[in-house]
Design a protein that fits this description.
This protein has ten helices and nine strands. With about 250 residues, the chain is of the alpha/beta class. The strands form two sheets. The protein has a seven-stranded parallel beta sheet with strand order 3-2-1-4-5-6-9, with helices on both faces. Strands 7-8 form a two-stranded parallel ribbon. The chain is globular. The protein has one domain: Rossmann fold, CATH 3.40.50. About 40% of the residues are buried. It starts with a strand and ends with a helix. It is about 50% helix and about 15% strand.
Length: about 250
């Protein structure tokens, strides 16, 4: 029997790397997608050490050309981990529109474009797993991150509808909505202060996110919020008190 293939975007570190190592350890071959070839090469070494075949695809998924290059490299994966992401914070009207546009495509429309090409083949063969890494921002109010929250809301809604459409064809879809995760995302966005200001109990590890996603697929849960704390407080996170606390914890001092 041929080995199955997992396509993982945003695979150079953090959640993407954790998913790559998980699937390598469970017998999948892996296609790593990202912009940083040096970091991808380091992850590739770990994936190969785990016994998997690994391919690297250097692509910028904030535009349709990048999505097309990924599809050319890996048109028929068995698993898709749509994890590529950035975050841009700032009050409305204070950020360059081109930056917001690229972020919005990367987090939302680009994910849909990728899956619109891959999912029909999965449905035809009646098998396939899709994990979309969204954010808790798609479920709660996010002042100073309106475009980020909107982009994540798009992909969460897309994933929920896709799950309902493809379930009868044997395709499993799970949308992960983590809160703060220990990755390089915030550092790259100039938000390193969050590591010190946000309490330790509000952070989860990349491995926790991976485990939550795999459980979600097995249990056919469409939207999963990793971490006991976030699941417990989720019903209250849009309250005025929670919003005031959130702004206090995340503001620059």
């Amino acid at each position: 029997m041929s080995r199955h293939t997992a396509l993982i975007t945003g695979a150079s570190s953090g959640i993407g790397k954790a998913f790559a190592l998980y699937y390598a350890a469970t017998g999948f071959d892996v296609v790593l997608v990202g912009r940083d070839i040096e970091q991808l090469a380091l992850v590739s070494e770990e994936v190969v050490a785990a016994g998997a075949t690994c391919q690297i695809c250097v692509a910028d998924l904030s535009g349709s050309d990048g999505v097309a290059s990924v599809l050319a490299k890996c048109p028929q994966p068995d698993v898709v981990i749509a994890n590529a992401g950035i975050t841009i914070a700032g009050r409305v009207g204070t950020r360059e529109w081109s930056d917001l546009e690229h972020m919005s495509y990367l987090l939302g429309v680009g994910v849909a474009q990728l899956l619109e090409e891959i999912v029909p083949t999965m449905a035809q063969r009646r098998s396939g797993d899709i994990l979309i890494v969204s954010s808790i921002a798609s479920l709660i109010t996010m002042p100073n991150s309106a475009m980020y929250a909107a982009s994540k809301s798009f992909v969460t809604a897309y994933g929920r509808s896709l799950a309902a459409e493809t379930e009868r064809f044997g395709v499993r879809v799970c949308v992960l909505c983590p809160g703060y995760v220990h990755t390089k995302l915030h550092e790259r966005a100039g938000l390193s202060h969050l590591e010190k200001q946000v309490p330790r109990w509000m952070w989860v590890s990349s491995d926790t996110v991976v485990q939550a996603g795999i459980r979600g697929l097995r249990r056919k849960k469409v939207v999963v919020v990793p971490g006991h704390v976030y699941r417990s407080v989720r019903p209250f996170m849009n309250s005025r008190a929670a919003q005031r606390l959130w702004r206090q914890l995340t503001k620059r001092h």
